[in-house]
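note to self — DONT lose this again. spent like an hour looking for the file last time. sequence + predicted structure for the chain T wanted, 117 res
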Amino acid sequence: MPTMPTSAQDLFDNLVPKGLAEHPDKAREVNAIYCFKVTGEGGGEWTVDLIANPPTCTKGDAGKAQCTVAVAHDDFKTMLADPNAGMQFYFQGKLQVSGDPMLAMKLQQLFDIARAK
C-alpha cells in the first residue's frame, strides 16, 4: 500500500527524499527542477532537482526551477489524494504554475516515486 503523506512537510521532508534515494533512475526520467510553494499550516517551500546526480529535495527556493508550483496546503493535500484535482484547481486559479507548464504534467511521476514501496 502506498504511503500517504500527512502534509506537504511530510511529503517533501521525508517521502520525496526517501523516494529519490531509492529510485534515482525514475527521478532522472522526469529530468526537471521544480519549486513548490505551499502556503498555510504544514506548508513551506522546497526545490526538487531531478536533474542532479543524485536527485535532491531541499528546503527553500534555490532560484533555478524550470517549473514553480504554488498552492494552498489544503488544496495540495486534496491533490495528493486525487491527482485529477490538480487540473480543477489550476482552472479555478487555486493552483499557480509558472515556468514550463509541460513539466507540471510530469508531477504525478514525482509523487508516484515518493509513494513507491
